Amino acid sequence: MFAKNASGRAIKAQATPVHYGRLPTKVKIVEDKPLAEEDRMEAPEITPGAPRKLPKGALGTPAITRDAEGRRWYALTVMAQTERKCCLGLRKLGYAAYSPAETIWVPYSRQQQKAKREVQRPFFVRYVFIGMHDDDPWWPLRERDAFGRNKLGIVGIVSNQGKPMLMRVDELAKIANHEREGWYDERKRPLLEQGEKELSRPKVEAGEMVRIIDGAFATYEGRADEDSTAEKARVWINVFGRETLMVMPIADVENLSRRSGSGENRVRGPLIPQTDAVV
C-alpha cells in the first residue's frame, strides 16, 4: 500500500517509522519557593510561671505546670496529618495551641522547572499541645459533626488514671524558643551552630598575634603562649630585646590574628623563655 506525501511522491506507509517518545527538554532551575506567611505556623511565646509548692518533707525539684498567664498545658492526640488543622482550629476557638515543627526544603519539579519549596513538618507526629485556664470549657474539644467525627480531628487527651496529664511548661517553652530562633530550620541551623562555635572558642589561642591595650605594657605586641582561660592570658612580648612571658587579664588583650582574617598571623613553634614576669 502506497501513499503520497506533500510533494506528491509515492511512499510506502509501512516503512515510515512512528515515534512515540518525547524529545528531551531542558530543565530550568528556578528560585526556591518559601512558605507563604498566611500558611506559616509560628511558635507561640510561652513564658514559664512560678513553680508549684512541694508538700512538706517532699524531695526533688518542683515542676512548673503553669505559664506566666496562668494556663496549664496538656497534650492531645490527633488523627494523622491533622496537626496543623487541629492547631488552627483551637486557636480560632480562643485556646493557646502549639504543634512543634521543623522547617525543611523539599525538591519538586513542575513544567520543566526544578526548585525547592519550604515545608513545615511536625516534630511530634499526631500530638498537639493546648494551654487552658482553669475556667476554660472542655466540651469544644469533644464536639462532633453529623458523621460522628471530631470536628478538630482530636482522638483523645493524654491522661494518667483518668485525669488529663499536665505538661512541664519550662520544657515546652524551651522548644518554642528554639523554634522561633531557627534551630529547627534546615537552612538557619548551620549559621546558628557556627555562631555558637565562635562564642565557645577561646578569645586567644596558642600562637596567635595579640596586642596589649591596657596596663604598663600597652601597645606592645606579642604571641600567645597557650589557649586563654576565662580570666588570664599568657603572652610572649619583646622587652629590651628579650622574650618575656607576661600573664595578664584577658580583657587587656586584643587578638590581631582574628581581626585581620583567618589566622594568617598565627605563629607556631617552640619559644625559649628567658624570664618570667607576672603583671
From TrEMBL:
This is NusG-like N-terminal domain-containing protein. The keyword Translocase does not apply. Signal peptide: none annotated. It comes from the Bacteria. The keyword Disulfide bond does not apply. Residues 258-279 are annotated as: Disordered. GO terms for biological process: DNA-templated transcription elongation; transcription antitermination. It comes from Methylobacterium terricola.
